[in-house]
Amino acid sequence: MAISLPYDREPSAAKRTGSKFPYVDERPSAAVEARVSRAAAAHGASPRIVTTGGNSTPRETARYRDDNHVLIDWFAFTVIPPEGEPLRWIVDELRQFIADLAFIPTGKGWNGYRQRHDIQHGNNEANLGLLAHGGASQRGSVHIELNAQACALITDWQIIQAWGERYQANITRIDLAHDDLTGQTITVDIGLRWHKSGEFNSNGRPAKARLIDDLGTGDGKTLYVGNRAYGKMLRIYDKGKQLGDPDSPWVRVEVELHNKSRLIPWDVLAYPSHYLAGAYPCLAYLSAEQKKIRTIHKAATISLESSVKHLRQTGGKLVNLMLQTHGGDAFAVVNELKREGIPRRLSGYAALLPDVLDSKHGT
């Protein structure tokens, strides 16, 4: 059961000051320029602007903001509540984006914040992220982390973009992912060839990379390029195999961006494909379209099938024996074995499971 947050704001909330960071954008908006100006005023120098790698900028493309090529798979930001607002303010604001959120105290701190609350959705115990607050060194700020399951519940990123720009919040991390469900456009082996040919090099320096090889076990391979400690890391991995299907061709390419050595603009929420394509030149050629709900639905389906397979391997013989002892009465066996709730592995997909089950039964 969720426990209410202590809604009193920290007593000594200092006003935020700018910081010297290069910018991840091609042509900054008015809001972006204002933030750059504040940083320049604070440090006496203008942050370097990092381009989108020669790809078209949002203002050179169609006017609408529908972007189906790339998923936002992790999202984190820091914000200072408006003057005089208690901590309750951020709770109410977050519930505008994802309804029925619950905040569970952990009794622990997090990365310099005095208190951490885990975020859940309704009565579902799946962890969607965290809220951290408190601590004099944090200057009254509140930090939010939303994981992949939480991001899948957000239906309108443009509203969050407008909110973030309005309250001058800072994006601290965002993961941008492109899925090739058939494995025809991108594979781990293609990523290795890109690395060998220098496609990931930066400023003439070879990019550091490491490969986790499943050696044919079917668990899937992962290629890492870069280092999150420096603010940018690429992953190319066998997503379907990771979820439990050893025959799945599904491959994901994902860039993890942090605000270390860069300032991430809120435009990234409206145009994630521009920033993923701009991360490395070779990514500009990823063009296979996909819808967010299709990708999440597929992940839920694979996870469910994998869970059923695991149950069959570990408990199938017991179920067979119980059917014999109950005279073939399957309902009696199910009633004796079932428990309330959803398996932890599937809890993150709880909202989608009814649709997945319907599709499996052809309804």
In words, what does this structure look like?
With 363 residues, the chain is of the alpha+beta class. The protein has two domains: 23-285, no CATH class; 292-360, no CATH class. It is 31% helix and 21% strand. It contains eleven helices and twelve strands. It has helices at residues 30-43, 88-97, 148-152, 157-166, 188-196, 239-242, 272-279, 292-325, 330-337, 344-347, 353-360, and strands spanning 23-24, 49-50, 71-79, 101-105, 115-121, 124-133, 142-146, 170-180, 209-212, 222-227, 232-237, 251-258. The strands form two sheets. The chain has a ten-stranded antiparallel beta sheet with strand order 4-5-6-7-3-8-12-11-10-9. Strands 1-2 form a two-stranded parallel ribbon. A hairpin with a 4-residue loop joins strand 10 and strand 11. The chain is flat, with a radius of gyration of 23 Å. It starts with 22 loop residues before the first strand and ends with a helix. Residues 6-29, 39-68 and 287-296 have low confidence and may be disordered.
Q: Main beta sheet: strand number and arrangement?
A: 10 strands, antiparallel
**Head-to-tail CA distance between termini:** 34 Å
Structural class: alpha+beta
Question: What is the mean pLDDT?
Answer: 77
Tally the structural domains: 2
As laid out across the biggest beta sheet, the strand order is 4-5-6-7-3-8-12-11-10-9
Parts with pLDDT < 50 across at least 5 consecutive residues: 6-29, 39-68, 287-296
Which shape, going by the Cα principal axes?
Answer: flat
Question: Cα-atom Rg, whole angstroms?
Answer: 23 Å
The helix content is: 25-40%
Task: List SSEs in N-to-C order.
Answer: EHEEHEEEEHHEHEEEHEHHHHH
Helical segment count: 11
In terms of DSSP E residues, the strand content is 15-25%
- How many beta-strand elements? 12
